[in-house]
Amino acid sequence: MQVRFGVLGPVAAWDGAGDAIALKGPRHRAVLARLIVARRRVVPVAHLVTDLWEDPPPDAVGALRTFVAALRRALEPQRPPRSPARLLVTEGPGYALRAEPDAVDAWRFERAVTTAGTPADVLPRVEEALGWWRGPAYADFSDEPWARTERSRLTELRLHAVERQAEARLDLGLAGEAVPDLDTHVAEHPWREEGWRLLALALYRTGRQGDALAVLRRARDLLVEHLGVDPGPGLSRLEADILHHAPHLAPGGQGPADTVWARAAAAYDRSVPTGARARLESTVGLMRDLAVTGGGGLRAAREHRVAAIAAAEELGDVELTARVIGAYDVPAIWTRLDDPDQATHVIAAAERTLAALPSCALPPGKAATRAVTPPVPEHAAAASHGAAVTPANGVRSPLGARDAVRARLLATIALESRGTNSPRGPATAREAELLARRLDDPGLLAFALNGVFMQTFHRTGLAPHRDAIGTELIALSARHGLATYEVLGHLIRLQARSALADFAGADAHAAAADQLAARHELPLVSVFTQWYRALRLDATGQAPPQEVEAAYRSAASRLDGAGMPGLEHGLLPLVLLCLRLRHPSPASADDSADFGPYEPWTRPLLLLRLGHRREAAAKLRDVPDPPRDLLLEAMWCLVARAAAAVGDRETMARARTALTPAAAELAGAGSGLLTLGPVSQHLDLLR
């Protein structure tokens, strides 16, 4: 029978009958807890020793083996002597706990809270999951650095669960039941704007309009007084809706827009046959609109996108398939993919479709046009992006709907190839842009420019180039009512101006993006602008490191459930590491945290902090070039610091060559998320 483990409180284990398993002393529990934190991954013996003892005794490895042996006897008492362990296993240089996905309460809790469903499904599931908490996560090890990040993550997930429970109660007309828990929630966690929003809405739905407005005022005063920030668009919009008695706030009621939606959906179901191609195209349009809502909507759109493309390919209609692939023109600002496997499928389908489309003005893979203006340097992007283009032979070919479809496929490949070294990404971005300009299609050009932006990371120091792309996107989108791309333009310029240390300019773009987001109900935008404001606090030195860290952690909490794993994974540990490297009074970063995709470039510095100079030097010798993305400069600066510390001249030369074009920029600030300070200071280390 399956052994179960509990970390939502003191660390515990239970056998198949539900009886507690004696885990002996605190060191035994610490070994078990450390392996659970690793989530089935191997933890090297050296790391376990460092985590268990601040000053390891001479026989630390032998003691560790004794703890492991005792744990194995406790967890698998029926295992025959000398037979291999199946649960706490030895693998490579260390140990791993191969617990089943539902054997650890924290893992079950995460799945229960993040699984989608109707309010009637969600409420009992989340209520039950919240009941699994027996105290603070990893309560026995609250001061251990190796547990800190996981404890923080689980705590954030629990707060999200409380809010999701309240939201389900509101959706089911149980506003009165939601108020007491939410009142406690905001008192204990006053920086969570979603908690304030739900409490105000619950009060309004129980007939307490004055109390609802008082709650919103209290939230605003706290945010302004303690963090120096205004409430986000969600709270501002709710206050306006309460003052105007917006119909959609009524309990269980539908506003006019809801009624129109329901009637239109019913009419569509009645009128359009189930197998019609029109349904497939309409579904993609719906997924595109769903994606910009963030959270569950973004996850759902991603989940169904490949299925929609496969369904179109099964119909054998290449032009329909092309439209289905190209219709998903969701603006993208982050350069790491949320689902690399899905991107591979989408690129492959787009390439197959391009090859099957009838030939037209620009054959796939060949740029048949050239700018009539002479080539310009990268930093003069405004000129190059405004250049008229003609066919290479000087004769303008007729272009039409098929060319627009082709351009969308090319732009899709450029977007889905971001952050990779594939030469196909830049080539398709250029072709899509040229076609879009010749077609004089503003929406298509905005989509193509998004692809161009995603392919401007082949070297460091390209913030001015991206700034020019953002400038054109804003102007183009404002002229033609392309709200989501206008927001994208402002976010691109926010990043670029931050890289160039122009925070007054970046502030203006953050404000413009927030205003557009509030007007057009784009909740993900405030995730990026809140991160930017934490970065600004950091880069300008306007607050001590402790306040900066709090601002970063508050911003990171917004990523929980936002549907952007490519952005979320490893980001907070990386940000806290960068903060600690820049300030003498260290942030509470965790060297054993999961740095995710940033591991190869952070590991040498982490090893140096532990005094493992030889291991750090070995890691540096093998360190690859960083991915071509918004953190390119930051990753090279991490490498530069480590290489300078161990005197690795070859790696120092690599870093110097890579960073020299960005000498005038702030390292990492071009992401809008973090900074390591001026690149020039890192170049000084490399001389």
Automatic annotation (TrEMBL):
<dbReference type="Pfam" id="PF00486">
    <property type="entry name" value="Trans_reg_C"/>
</dbReference>
<dbReference type="InterPro" id="IPR001867">
    <property type="entry name" value="OmpR/PhoB-type_DNA-bd"/>
</dbReference>
<keyword id="KW-0805">Transcription regulation</keyword>
<dbReference type="Pfam" id="PF03704">
    <property type="entry name" value="BTAD"/>
</dbReference>
<dbReference type="GO" id="GO:0003677">
    <property type="term" value="F:DNA binding"/>
</dbReference>
<dbReference type="InterPro" id="IPR016032">
    <property type="entry name" value="Sig_transdc_resp-reg_C-effctor"/>
</dbReference>
<dbReference type="InterPro" id="IPR051677">
    <property type="entry name" value="AfsR-DnrI-RedD_regulator"/>
</dbReference>
<dbReference type="InterPro" id="IPR011990">
    <property type="entry name" value="TPR-like_helical_dom_sf"/>
</dbReference>
<comment type="similarity">
    <text>Belongs to the AfsR/DnrI/RedD regulatory family.</text>
</comment>
<keyword id="KW-0804">Transcription</keyword>
<feature type="DNA-binding region" description="OmpR/PhoB-type">
    <location>
        <begin position="1"/>
        <end position="99"/>
    </location>
</feature>
<dbReference type="InterPro" id="IPR005158">
    <property type="entry name" value="BTAD"/>
</dbReference>
<dbReference type="GO" id="GO:0006355">
    <property type="term" value="P:regulation of DNA-templated transcription"/>
</dbReference>
<feature type="domain" description="OmpR/PhoB-type">
    <location>
        <begin position="1"/>
        <end position="99"/>
    </location>
</feature>
<dbReference type="GO" id="GO:0000160">
    <property type="term" value="P:phosphorelay signal transduction system"/>
</dbReference>
<keyword id="KW-0238">DNA-binding</keyword>
<dbReference type="InterPro" id="IPR036388">
    <property type="entry name" value="WH-like_DNA-bd_sf"/>
</dbReference>
<protein>
    <submittedName>
        <fullName>DNA-binding SARP family transcriptional activator</fullName>
    </submittedName>
</protein>
